[in-house]
Amino acid sequence: MQTLSSYVLGRWIQGQQNPATLYNPTTEAPVATVGSGGFDAKAVLAYGRDTGGPALRALSFAQRGKLLASMSAAIHEKRDELIGLALENGGNTRGDAKFDVDGATGTLMFYAGLAEKLGNRPFLVDGDGIQLGRTARFWGQHVHVTRPGVAVHVNAFNFPAWGMMEKMACAILAGMPVIEKPGTPTALVAWRIAQLIVEKGGLPAGAYQFVAGSLGDMLDHMGPQDVLAFTGSSATGAKLRGNANLVKHNVRVNVEADSLNAAVLAPDVDASSDTYGLFLSNVALDTTQKTGQKCTAVRRVLVPATRVKDVVTDLVAQLSRTKVGDPSDNAVRMGPLASKSQFDEVRAGIDRLAKHGTIATGGTQKIADKGYFVAPTVIVAKDANDPAFHAEEVFGPCVVVLPYSGDANEAARIVNLGGGGLVCSVYGNDAEWTDAFVLTAAPWHGRIWVGSDKMAEQSLPPGMVLPMMIHGGPGRAGGGDELGGERGLHFYMQRTALQGFKGTIEASFGHAPTASTTT
Ligand code: NAP
Question: Is residue 276 within 6 Å of ligand 1 at its C-beta?
């Protein structure tokens, strides 16, 4: 059995405190152990700040981009091994594991490509220069400069590869060293990636540290130039954000938390249309992909009341085609939940929601002798306004169908009862209807995905996070955002307003001259 270790202060160490066991969720057999501690958290932060930071800041964006490309190659080279570990320790099907591992390498490559466009200057220009005085002699320009601190990244268990790399790609490209902490139940994949990065990633000393197990008192020693980016549950996010030291020093904190993502079927969508087919396949995909353990997965499905019976019949039929079982079987499309605690929490959550509606398929009955398996579950709500359906994220293969009148504003109002979400998908071909919905739902969401006949053939599903678009959301979703191309770097940089003589400010800090203006 593996014993996971941390890579801190330039060496691998094994923590001895609070040992935890990682399991194979299909067989319930132990696969690894991890202990915490064994390092001085203050020294680990200082090593990143004082050794990794200067080394990264000495590189241009383009040079940092090459590091991202080399990390991507190191991970891709071991793709099959990583997929095997995700199957063993995460209960991932091969498709689920590819989604995570290829998401990691793809995001790194996206930012490696962006790096080439950012130029050789050690800052980013923000918007156009602004005349501040009576004449243009007194001039202003906003810029982003790298923060000379360290980025602590606390990651959730569900995407051990992609989750770590999407944060890291932005930080390293911005020039900030990182300390990565994976979610413990599935840390085997993250730990193997840490080994690959240390061995083959080519990062300068101190730019990458990895803490398996607990961070100890690290947050208590973070300073004003450091940043904390967290992904996980709202409850843990709120706890970390409230850390007295982080509050005292106004340490920048980004929280990516849970979300009751909704899919909304507009009344104009005909059951024979491409849009309806897309709606059904995306809802079924979100319910079963990664066994519903995706922060962007649909939890609530709004359907015009007159069509609930037909839509539920179609959805149940679609879900019945998903083979559930041992993910090492290539025919299986949905494996177990990742851990025993997930299994217990998801079943308890389904039982709680079922009290407020009717189970159309699935439920909490045992479907295997061993392993943390739960059947894909559809619950039909009695009342779409019942707070029970807008309060709790059941982080597993469960969706609730909520009947509504067919009115766009009513649909948006019900969706917004979720208190802020990562992504809301709406399916409709009537632009007036979808526009009205979007404008009411958008303030409560980081992303709105509009499905229609015109894009059905080319669309990527709403649960897929794309590095060129922001990811995050207001309210219970954490109030943060990540990715979004160059925007993802800004969290790791200070935006500063420069004011002075136009000739100097513009020459040194304005937009770089383009090829056409230099010739
Ligand atoms: P979690 O229990 O909140 O844990 C998240 C991370 O926080 C883990 O690394 C955990 O470490 C760590 N942690 C817990 N308590 C801590 C403390 N006191 N100090 C420092 N770190 C602490 O969430 P999870 O079960 O891993 O992930 C599932 C949740 O994440 C779901 O709610 C899902 O919606 C959300 N999620 C959101 C996004 C997004 O982008 N918005 C993406 C993925 C997942 P240990 O594992 O060692 O306890």
Answer: no
Residue 254 has pLDDT above 50, yes or no: yes
Find the mean pLDDT for residues 496-517: 86
Return the percentage of the chain with pLDDT > 70, whole number: 99
d(CA 203, CA 158): 26
517: confidence class by pLDDT, cuts 50, 70, 90: very low
Task: Give the amino acid at 250.
Answer: N
**Bridge partners, 300 (sequence order):** 262, 400
The pairing of strands 178-181 and 398-404 is: unpaired
Which of the listed residues 231, 245, 424, 465 should we mutate to test ligand 1's pocket, taking the one with most ligand atoms within 8 A of CB?
A: 231
CA of 182 to the centre of ligand 1 (A): 9
Place of tokens 């706890």: 239
State if residue 395 touches ligand 1 by the CB under 6 angstroms criterion: yes
CA-CA distance, 12 to 210, in Å (whole number)? Answer: 9
Distance between Cα 304 and ligand 1 center (Å) = 35
**What token pair was written down for 202?**
């080519």
Contact 403 CB / ligand 1 (< 6 Å)? no
Distance CA 400, CA 350 (A): 10
Nearest CA to ligand 1 atom 13: 236
Q: Are 483 and 471 in contact (CB under 8 A)?
A: yes
CA-CA distance, 57 to 74, in Å (whole number)? 23
**pLDDT at 514 (0 to 100):** 60
